[in-house]
Input
Amino acid sequence: MKKNIALVAGGYSGEYEISINSARRVLENIDREIFEVFLVIINRETWKCEDVNGKSLSLDRTDFTVNTATGKIRFDMAMIIIHGTPGEDGKLQGYFDMIGIPYNTCSHDTAAATFNKYYCKLLVHSLGLSLAKHQFYTKRDQPDPEAIISALGLPLFIKPNQNGSSVGISKAKSKTELISAIDHAFSFDHEILIEEFIEGREITCGVIRLNNELLCLPLCEIVSKKEFFDYEAKYSPGMADELVPAPLTDDLTLRCGEISMKLYNKLNCKGIVRFDYILSNNEFYFLEVNTVPGLSAGSIVPKMVRAHGWTEGEFYTRMIDEIMC
Output
């Protein structure tokens, strides 16, 4: 009998369309001989469900079941593909925990801790790993640009503390740009993070647990054609080169994998997770963890999967089987 899988997409953030693109890509590649797949699209107003033919179905949010002409469908697993809230910050994970439906991502507490960039950095720092110097502010604070520059130097990166896909991020090269960037970041979140700039190469590592063993997918080096890998560079064709496998020495490749697997275990991750770093002077500086990485045609993880020698369909089958076992 086929397993009923809900692809849960959409969300409340600026990454809504990216999430929808990821879900539709999964829908195209998942093995329909094994899985009965439904698309659940969430926004602030409604939760909508449709079958593979696009037919709308009634979704009961009290128990996450679907009513059809032939009876009620209960899902065997929810595949969360929401980037940002409520799929990457623990809210949906808590909901699925309460109603007893397995899902493909880390638990609600890990999701909440890792989505908060500042809290995540505190955890990573406690593990003895390298980080850029940074400062954390809320809207209650009054950041002093001169003090920030004195402590962290220029240029600086200014980020919303809880956001993804580089939404709201700016690079500031002067005091004037810093002031503007702080206001810009606060327009996306009530908390912001300001980080020193580290010159280096951007490397990302995908990790998943399969058959109770951790697997590192081929590394990716991101070479942005803009000043940094911002939203436009991530999602506009031709704005960045994503080199998979990354052109690194065997020693650096091994070390990045070891760091990433350590983080995966210590942060109690589950499913496919992507860890981002800056490689500078042969040192990996942790940037952030993506517990719900993109799965669209242009996303990095599918490129890693193909470089590993799997089709995307094979990868989803392996991941779902690991969750369901």
